[in-house]
Amino acid sequence: MLDILAKNPIEFIIIAALLVAAISIHEFSHALAADHLGDPTPRIAGRLTLNPKAHLDPLGTVLLFLFGFGWGKPVPFDPFNLREPRRDAALISFVGPLSNLIMAITSAIILRFTTILPSLTLSVFISDILSMFIYFNVLLAIFNLIPVHPLDGFKVVAGILPHKYYSDWLELERYGMIFLIMLIFPFMGSSAITTIISPIVRFIISLLLPAKIGGVI
């Protein structure tokens, strides 16, 4: 990301805006799900909004701009306000990545239509922006589904594990940031997290983007 800033500041600004949009949608979806499930905590905390200022996490945003993946400010919710705390916490966590996948699919459908209907053909510039938006949303979704605290995947797994393993799984929460840093740190030039998620991201992108657009990513 920093090399893009040095070579092409305008491209960096566009990418930053797309990443911020993807994060804001992600975190807003968490807040909306919690609110729908009966917890007013996100609404009270001012998180039931698409305003990026409410959702950007300093560390997660820095990592996003440095390495291309990160996270937003965690949306607070009170399990005691939920009807089924364990299940609903998993649903609230899953909705964030799901919203990014929905945005990616929606953008891909728009691009598909423009390739089928010449009258709706977009400029190359707009097509490239939509393609990048698809990529960032898929990347954000898959990254956040990794089952390591503070990522969403940790609570998603907690919600589907057999009850006898639930307490043991929650014990791992305290080590989450250590695990995450180890996954992100580029040992021998490449991070473990890139090795894990890159094939999944590439596969989903290959399904969403037409061949001539896929070359943009």
UniProtKB/TrEMBL annotation:
The question of whether Hydrolase is a record keyword is answered with yes
Subcellular localization, as worded in the UniProt entry:
Cell membrane
Which molecular function GO terms apply here? Answer: metal ion binding; metallopeptidase activity
Which InterPro entries does the record match to this protein? Answer: Metallopeptidase_M50B (IPR052348), Peptidase_M50 (IPR008915), Rip2-like (IPR044537)
Sorted keywords for this record are: Cell membrane, Hydrolase, Membrane, Metal-binding, Metalloprotease, Protease, Transmembrane, Transmembrane helix, Zinc
Q: Name one Pfam family in it.
A: Peptidase_M50
Entry cofactors: Zn(2+)
The residue ranges crossing the membrane are 12-33, 91-113, 125-146, 175-197
Keyword Glycoprotein applies = no
Q: GO CC annotations?
A: plasma membrane
Q: Which residues form the Peptidase M50 domain?
A: 126-162
Membrane topology per the record? Multi-pass membrane protein
What are the recorded Gene Ontology BP terms? proteolysis
The record's similarity note reads: Belongs to the peptidase M50B family.
Q: What name appears for this protein in its UniProt entry?
A: Peptidase M50 domain-containing protein
Q: Which organism is it from?
A: Candidatus Gottesmanbacteria bacterium RIFCSPLOWO2_01_FULL_39_12b
> Taxonomic lineage of this organism?
Bacteria, Candidatus Gottesmaniibacteriota
